[in-house]
């Protein structure tokens, strides 16, 4: 009896042990798979997180670059700088900010942070002489798993988890982490990124008005650098920092953009109706250059001014031309580029058949303190719109200034006058504007066309910086 | 003692029937449990494996979409992209070059293509020329891209093998939806 009982207990124990072993094996395999899946999930989360902090680093760098336009004295505050001048300048050494950027604590007490580096290399200077910036942002994120590589070869190749050593720098690590590197190129954006821009109201009351675009740099979008209606582009955007655009059923080949407002009579707007637009409009201040000794005080009859390779400056009280009087700005006889800036302290008035004429390859910057009435035969610019830049300096507070373009007063150029009311009454035979206009308010009451040259976005005064290129370096 | 020998000589029909019935029931229970455990185990492995493949597919495609300049969606979930030629032949980065209002790297752009071949998903790259197996044995997985202009949505779905009397509510699709914003201005030119 004793023996039989003993045998029976052993058999049951063996069966129980085998059952427990099989169940444990199954459980261990499942737990192993679950752990592996959990590690992959954590590593994937850290991989995603490192991209977010890297992009946060880019945002911080972009904010500093933008400050260099809007608030230069506050720009780059707190950034380590290896250049001797203390400011980021073309060809300067890289600025860098390390370890204290965007440190944050996530799941399991893991840290994420970004290391950002900004430089301004010589090969990132464009044809206008403007500097573009390169931002290198590395986002790091710690991982709350043991130092175990998980997943397939494709997982390892994709996420490149650093378990013990940083594979880029060779630095020994105290905890596993992921690093992702983004290279972003920031390009300057000129004041003239729209065909028409007003700080306040914009009004067009004629359905025959046409606003479209071309690109004087691209033969597919222009002919010999000039507007060709057959190659019309649809980037003739109109915009306001205010709440209202009355499009007047004008033909707008582009977007109509307001600052949280509405667009009336937008039946012929081919682009989007955008309601979150805003562009900072810095005031124009008078250049400090000394005038030429031969600079006249007032121009009231036919006059010739000379541009030079090193920028000549003329400071005038007024330009008052009537009848058949002309103001001609000549350049070099061999056609090489020449430059001049003309500062008018009071008013500009063209009437009758008067005209301002630019010579070939002459670049003119015209600064106006007072009012302008451009009628007569307007401004003759045989070059592209970048050659003629017309700036309205900021009026004193509560004083209204205006610039009116009428008759045949159209021109090829850009007008930036955020403190002036701009009116275009049109009606002449050659009353088109080939370029871009920025004003305190913009009103078009006649049959007048604005053909925006997209090349203007890359020249003139810098209003902002935007991301031109984004690339993640996956080495 | 005598009665013990007498007892050990055999069992009655009733005793045999009862014991066989008990053992049969026990064996059947063990077998059914084993089958259930095996099915559950396989379903768990299948689900985890496919979830990992989903994450990998989504991460790979998203990574390339963020830096792409042009995208074209083809048949059978094929995605073709144009990427800047960032890397030199020795693997170091090319310097960026200003071209108009944009930036270029190197001499020619790189074409990256995601395509399915039977039950595998591949990523091919034109420069440096390479083909990488991204996911394998994904007969139950679908990968569907949708074009939203500057954003591309990737839906990866599979049906888990967990079942209870073939009820649909435990075999519904397991889907990851990932919408990726192309960071670079998208070119309308086909890759």
Labels describing this entry:
A: 475 residues, alpha/beta, 21-stranded parallel beta sheet, 6-stranded antiparallel beta sheet, B: alpha+beta, 5-stranded antiparallel beta sheet, 3-stranded antiparallel beta sheet, 2 helices, 10 strands, elongated
Query: How many DSSP helices of chain B?
Result: 2
Series of secondary-structure elements of chain B, N-terminal to C-terminal:
HHEEEEEEEEEE
Please state roughly what percent of the residues of chain B sit in beta strands, choosing from under 5%, 5-15%, 15-25%, 25-35%, 35-45% or over 45%. 25-35%
Side-by-side strand order of the widest sheet of chain B: 1-2-5-6-7
Shape estimate of chain A: elongated
Which stretches of chain A are poorly predicted, pLDDT < 50 over at least 5 residues?
A: 89-93
- What spatial form of chain B do the alpha-carbon principal axes imply? elongated
- Give the oligomer, counting copies of the same chain as homo and different chains as hetero: heterodimer
What is the helix tally of chain A? 2
Distance between the termini of chain A: 76 Å
Number of separate domains of chain B = 1
Strand elements of chain A, count: 31
Instruction: Give the distance, in angstroms, between the N- and C-terminal Cα atoms of chain B.
Output: 96 Å
Residue ranges of chain B: pLDDT <50 for 5 or more in a row? none
**Could you describe the largest sheet of chain B, including whether it forms a barrel?**
5 strands, antiparallel
Q: Using DSSP, what is the number of strands of chain B?
A: 10
